[in-house]
Amino acid sequence: MEPAQRPNRSTFWSRRRILGLICLVVAVYFLWYPSSDTKWVIVTLPDAGIYQCDPNETAKNVAIIGAGSGGASAAYYIDRFKHPCNSVNITVYERSSYVGGRSTTVDVYGDPAEPVELGASIFVEVNRNLVSAAREFNLATQGFKPKIKDLPNTLGVYDGKDWVFMGSESGWWTAAKILWKYGLAPIRTQQLMKKTVGAFLQMYEEPHFPFQDLSQTAYDLGLTEATAATGEEFLQANGIQGLFGTDIIQASTRVNYAQNIDKIHGLESMVCMATDGAMSIQGGNWQIFDGMLKASRANVLLNTSVSNVYRRSDGSYAVNALSSSYPTGIDLAIYDTVVLAAPLQFAKLNFTPAPVNPPPEIPYVNLHVTLFTSPRKLNPQAFNLEGAVPTTILTTTPKTNANPPPFYSISTLRTLTNPTTYQREYLYKIFSPAPVSPSWLHSILTPLHASTHPLATQDRQDISWIYEKVWQSYPYLSPRITFEDVQLDEEGKVWYTSGIESFISTMETSSLMGMNVARLITDGWKREGKESEKQKLQKAEGGIEAATGQVPMTGKAPGEEL
Ligand SMILES: Cc1cc2nc3c(=O)[nH]c(=O)nc-3n(C[C@H](O)[C@H](O)[C@H](O)COP(=O)(O)OP(=O)(O)OC[C@H]3O[C@@H](n4cnc5c(N)ncnc54)[C@H](O)[C@@H]3O)c2cc1C
Ligand SMILES: *[C@@H]1O[C@H](CO)[C@@H](O)[C@H](O)[C@H]1NC(C)=O
Ligand SMILES: *[C@@H]1O[C@H](CO)[C@@H](O)[C@H](O)[C@H]1NC(C)=O
Ligand SMILES: *[C@@H]1O[C@H](CO)[C@@H](O)[C@H](O)[C@H]1NC(C)=O
Question: Which residue owns the Cα nearest ligand 2 atom 6?
């Protein structure tokens, strides 16, 4: 061997080693070690403007339909953004018996001390509305990494036959070996994700906030490039090649959105990789939305389903609801402004007149969530493994044309004590495209010794508690460049938050849209206020007739005054 080659060879190896370590650190970091130290973000209140209050000013009556993230945020931010002169009376209608919508918990074993998320479970540190609300309401957050005494924390990606990724706290070298094959892709993905998230965060700031037209704002921020392409195309367009997309990013699009990377759009694929500082609220994320509703002093009507919203001749809106809480079962009230904070296609309500551009029906994923407890661990044989099964199983599509696994994810969440048997049990959560059969559930759990336990007993003891729910969880996020209207009528009195879901479907984005609508509504009131102020000044300065077309602050429609 010639001496001259030696330095070359050694730099080659050390560079590769450094590169490998960087890949490892980056990939393991954002897949598995989201930082728990949260950077708090303060939302600054917009300038309130200066004008004298009219003591005879009547309260604004606002109806919000839906007490999920979108509706609760609309209420909260209307109260924060409104001019101090405006007194606002907010009524929130909620069809179900609880606050939170798709963010809700159920009680394991029916025990209120053991809640577990049934819907949205995770938000991240760049989710500034949720993070600042959690702080304001003193809600404790927790990381999303399971902590189970007798099981090491591991995350694996399974394709139904092979494990394409296996990461564990101790087995970092395994991760390094597997990540070796992805080269620069993890770093490039991280950079692309940061850039995309950076553009998205401008939606919270002037001049983009508030936005009347989501399609235009997405375009202005360069985000249409990401929504117009599939995840796969978007990665390719940004120089990210190889198996990282299907092995790792797709594992994330499947667990988060039940969609593959060749179908889901590029923006939502990037959202799936933005996992820094992943957290949830201890006891349930719904408490954020409950806190927002309480802070807004809104009147929340549970078990109350809005069936009709119609415009009256004076420009106000009548809201008709069915409720088990009313003696007559029917509630009718009049509002200045109405916010629909639920997907129109599931709200089952009529608008008269119909919206200017009615949001079209879009396909939603039917996601099956199965929560259950068992004293058994997962059976390695059921997953082609010899050692322990990872506590978080994600999935991807197989490289051959075999079938992918019949589930998107299986998570071992925590251990608890069964209140009847006092046995220690595991709490599992499965996301799947179809219901899971009892026999399949038994097949993934380690069997008891047949000699000591007859089959019948075994079946009964396998699963001690089970809860199944089918959600219309999120839209199929196919590539698109236009998004539904924020304002549904011509006068700016009927608003819609759920159009943002085909852009990004998360608790935070629903909150962002609730905040956006709140700002558009309160800005409208401020304009009305300034107009009526001007009218009064003109009158005072020599009885000049109020110019036509100006809307007084008491909120009558212009046509009505004649
Ligand atoms: C299983 C699952 C996992 C998820 N995981 C995450 C996650 O980890 N992180 C994340 O950020 N997001 C996640 N999501 C998505 C997230 O839950 C939603 O994007 C978000 O909660 C939507 O909030 P929203 O207020 O817009 O709608 P919703 O939460 O659906 O609220 C709408 C409310 O309106 C009510 N309503 C509808 N029609 C009427 C009517 N006519 N009258 C009165 N009330 C009505 C409904 O009952 C509902 O409570 C997940 C969703 C599911 C289902
Ligand atoms: C408020 O209403 C009262 C009674 O109608 C009236 O006397 C008063 O001038 C009004 N105040 C203002 C600021 O318009
Ligand atoms: C607030 O709204 C509720 C429900 O519509 C109504 O009963 C109440 O009278 C309103 N209060 C005010 C001060 O307008
Ligand atoms: C709503 O309905 C549920 C089930 O019918 C009931 O248990 C609950 O008490 C009701 N809540 C309210 C506020 O009326």
Answer: 56
Q: Are 332 and 318 in contact (CB under 8 A)?
A: yes
* Angle between helices 250-257 and 266-273 in degrees, nearest 10: 100
Query: What pTM was computed for the model?
Result: 0.87
C-beta of 233 in contact with ligand 2 (< 6 A): no
Q: Residue 151: which pLDDT band, with cuts at 50, 70 and 90?
A: confident
Ligand that lies nearest to the alpha carbon of residue 130, given by its number in the listed order: 1
pLDDT band at 538 (very low <50, low <70, confident <90, very high): confident
Rounded to whole angstroms, the Cα distance separating 32 from 20 reads 17
Q: Looking at this protein, which amino acid is placed at residue 441? A: L
**Could you identify the residue written with the tokens 């916010």?**
339
Segments making up each domain of the chain, as ranges: 59-144+280-362+478-562, 148-170+364-475, 183-213+222-277
Within 13 A of 105's CA, how many CA atoms are on the CB side? 23
Instruction: Tell me whether the omega of the peptide bond preceding residue 353 falls within 30 degrees of 0, making it cis.
Output: yes
**Does the domain spanning 59-144+280-362+478-562 belong to CATH 3.50.50.60?**
yes
354-406 per-position pLDDT tens digit? 999 999 999 999 999 999 999 999 999 999 999 999 999 999 999 888 889 99
Q: How far is the CA of 89 from the centre of ligand 3 (A)?
A: 6
Cα–ligand 4 centroid distance for 418 (angstroms): 28
